[in-house]
Amino acid sequence: MESSSSSGAASARRRSGGGSWGSIGSGADPFDIPPKGAPVERLKKWRQAALVLNASRRFRYTLDLKKEEQKEEAIRKIRAQAHVIRAAFRFKEAGLVHIQPQEPTAPQVDGALGFGIKEEQLTALTRDHNYSALQQYEGISGVAGMLKTDTEKGINGDDSDITARRNAFGSNTYPRKKGRSFLAFLWDACKDLTLIILMVAAAVSLALGITTEGIKQGWYDGASIAFAVLLVVVVTATSDYKQSLQFQNLNEEKQNIKLEVVRGGRRVLVSIYDLLVGDVVPLKIGDQVPTDGVLISGHSLSIDESSMTGESKIVHKDQKSPFLMSGCKVADGYGTMLVTAVGINTEWGLLMASISEDSGEETPLQVRLNGVATFIGMVGLSVALAVLVVLLARYSWLRCFFFEKMPILFICVALFSCRYFTGHTYNPDGSVQYVKGKMGLGQTIGGVVRIFTVAVTIVVVAVPEGLPLAVTLTLAFSMRKMMRDKALVRRLSACETMGSATTICSDKTGTLTLNQMTVVEAYFGGKKMDPPNNVQVLPTTVSSLIIEGIAQNTSGSIFEPENGQDQEVTGSPTEKAILSWGLKLGMRFNDTRSMSSILHVFPFNSEKKRGGIAVHLGGSEVHVHWKGAAEIILDSCKSWLAADGSKHSMTPEKVGEFKKFIEDMAVSSLRCVAFAYRAYEMDDVPNEDQRADWILPEDDLIMLGIVGIKDPCRPGVQDSVRLCTAAGIKVRMVTGDNLQTARAIALECGILTDPNVSEPIIIEGKTFRALTDLEKEEAAEKISVMGRSSPNDKLLLVKALRKRGHVVAVTGDGTNDAPALHEADIGLSMGIQGTEVAKESSDIIILDDNFASVVRVVRWGRSVYANIQKFIQFQLTVNVAALIINVVAAISSGNVPLNAVQLLWVNLIMDTLGALALATEPPTDHLMERPPVGRREPLITNIMWRNLTIMALFQVTVLLTLNFRGTSLLQLKNDNPAHADKVKNTFIFNTFVLCQVFNEFNARKPDELNIFKGITGNHLFVAIVAITVVLQALIIEFLGKFTATTRLSWQLWLVSIGLAFFSWPLSFLGKLIPVPERPLGDFFACCCPVSKRAADTKGDDADHSDA
């Protein structure tokens, strides 16, 4: 029963498109692109298919394909230049081998503002990787001396020292190209073809008006159109400019990496922009090399230089190859570097200054909205063409050059021209507007211009140019708010994809737990230490071995202040917990480390889950220390140390005793870490030249003991997990801890509810790894907890879930998590514990490493989609109503109730102001009470169709009734016909605008009865509605000459408000009408076999691309 239901769920997900990437083919929708890694052909295809009036504005926030090509070319050139320089130096050094060696002479060194070396000399040294010059400077210690740097304690770091270094060597910033100015955005807004035509029409109208009516009265028509166009341009440019600034700030935040440096002997956290020449920077696996520099010391340090050289080759760094390039990543090991060049003097700075940072990136939703805008435009053309056929049947003589180029413009011109020039268009007093032979050329041209301007304005309203840009607006708003919620968005598409997430694969440590680790239990000398720091129960020989292993086999550090203050422990949470425990045992960190020298290091590896180190104590004595996952270390031990220091063989009974202790700690949700060592002979250690490839011995180990580390669950994590479950999102825990610890934490977090569950609900990584691909898919569907997992197991789980149709979000912090983060639909890296490699592979950075922040990202993702749907519903209602009213009125009477200026004002309300009001709605709890949105679920749902249809019908019915019967209904029959007609048209315009204002409230809650819920929390919405109403009142009461309106009596204002107010109860009643769950598109597919076959083909292609 369970398998069948999961199978049904998977098929439902496939139908909704979750996890499907689509395919490029004849049947594929050009407006359907994947969230990640869309091919260039697909990006070009949708651009060609879109119906666009202003390309510079519409495509502003999409990827500039031409700039991308130029960027790649610039990177290739800089890489080639670097290769040539280094090849020349290698050639020169190779030639010197055959020349009689001479005593090296140190190069001439000139002091620079108190330092022993100049900026250009340092830059040349590192950029050219000139090893011989480094030797002439007496090596790294010589360079450090010139820079007044202690290689152990770093620079002094006081204000005067920092200022002096900045003045001498520059800061770690590079010149960036200035952002676009407001004037550039104004210019872009002016490029709209329809607005250009309207401005030309305004100029002609102004000239004709002044010529025929004089300057006192004749300038109103032309000036009012020009002013309306300028208002649209300014408001549009202001909105776009503000969005641009938001994206610019977010981009700067993304690049502002925080990292540790050693200053005054203390490790401090600084911004990458604050690094100085002479700084000592610790490096560990996953870090980005922040500047150019030289290696002071390192162990198994390997660097991935592909970002600079373009070659995916890992380069080992040591004293013979010490040069480090900024922008590269630490692939393995750890070490410390001396900063020798910053900012524009580094290769990375040179590269970044040479290319423009293009933040453009189209998201799937943005592209789909381009499709919707194109579809609406096509529907408008189809309706207009049908009207044209009717008119041409009556007036077959009409021809227009614009028919081929601008059909919708031709239709509108045709509507008016046919009636106007054949004497079928009448003035309000009943007289014919155009009398052949009796009207002057100026009057005739004036009539044509009026027809033309109204026609072009209808085009502006009919084609929803601002619809795709609403996505950018809501994404910019969401990204800014998400920063406050501790989430930094690196990839725009991740915002909306997160709203479709069906499962979250979360790490345990630091995400579900607090990452505040402390050693609470210890088992040494074959017995439990109570308390865990009671070192007195052990002899000195045993305790010294334990302390030696803690102090040497660590990537952490302890700063010991000279004034007797508390010691500062730095490193990963696990390392900090163990080092803090070591201090309680009486460890003196620096003294212990000075008693032995490090020969070789095997850095902790998340695959092997252990790390080791070989230290030389003097003479021939060498100790090899290992630390790692308790059961894995236990398997390598052949003996153990007793409390009296005696060595005993590891019998099966003793193994069982150790395992029992591990299990008891794991059940208490403790992380178990074991310590072991073995003695070694110096004669067996490889020479220094061969030591880099030495594999540390990990057999015949002697077990020292085990510690249990407590990491409490985060407060509120249970509520967050419960919220996800209610929202249709399954939370899965993937951890490197053993199965019992994972089970205990999962029960505490609410991921598991039954403590007795078994495979595959709770499974070990190696068990999952051993399954066949089909078995992996079936197991993945049921897995809630995966323990003892490696990063590769996480990757396999993600792939299996995506094949089942899931939209997968994955958290990760380590370098080895990068493939899983990249493969997932949404990669979430950790801001505190995450490495730079993990962050670069992710889509969103969780700044506080908190699972609750992941849930907030889901809320924002769903909010993006919901806000866009609200805006679509609102805009389509305006589009449909405005188009039908003007077209019907034009065909029937030859006059339109809404003129050019009025339509431009309506377009402003609908486009920019509407987007600001509705696309910036904050997320609500209601969003988390519905299932995830399928990525290919229709943008216009059945609920939206119902609401849209009801409102559009209501507005069209009311306004057309007023258009044809308004004079009698408003009791204007006794007025002057011209004045009565003006009052009627003003009343229609006023009612139409107020209908949109009231309908904005309806659009806020498409599927909820209470449309005012949470309205006080959205100050922007309230402000925009208030501004719209105030401006509308000003237009009606004071700007009548510009808008061709007249003042309305307070009675007519009340009637207008009353008619618009009726939108609310009508919407309330409409929401009680049930709608089918099946999308309307499916009904059309059933009726049209061709469409159904195309849809099926597309679905099959998508599934194949998944597989």
UniProtKB/TrEMBL annotation:
**Keywords (A to Z) from UniProt:** ATP-binding, Calcium, Calcium transport, Calmodulin-binding, Ion transport, Magnesium, Membrane, Metal-binding, Nucleotide-binding, Translocase, Transmembrane, Transmembrane helix, Transport
Query: Bias category Low complexity: which stretches?
Result: 1-11
Known EC number(s)? 7.2.2.10
Q: Where is this region: Disordered?
A: 1-37
Q: Which reaction does it catalyse?
A: Ca(2+)(in) + ATP + H2O = Ca(2+)(out) + ADP + phosphate + H(+)
Fetch the InterPro entries from UniProt.
ATPase_P-typ_cation-transptr_C (IPR006068), ATPase_P-typ_cation-transptr_N (IPR004014), ATPase_P-typ_P_site (IPR018303), ATPase_P-type_domA (IPR059000), Ca_ATPase_N_dom (IPR024750), P-type_ATPase_IIB (IPR006408), P_typ_ATPase (IPR001757), P_typ_ATPase_HD_dom (IPR044492)
Q: What compartments host this protein?
A: Endomembrane system; Membrane
Q: Transmembrane region positions?
A: 193-212, 218-238, 334-355, 375-395, 407-427, 447-477, 871-891, 943-964, 1020-1040, 1052-1073
**Cited SMART domains:** Cation_ATPase_N
What is the similarity comment for this entry? Belongs to the cation transport ATPase (P-type) (TC 3.A.3) family. Type IIB subfamily.
Provide the protein name: Calcium-transporting ATPase
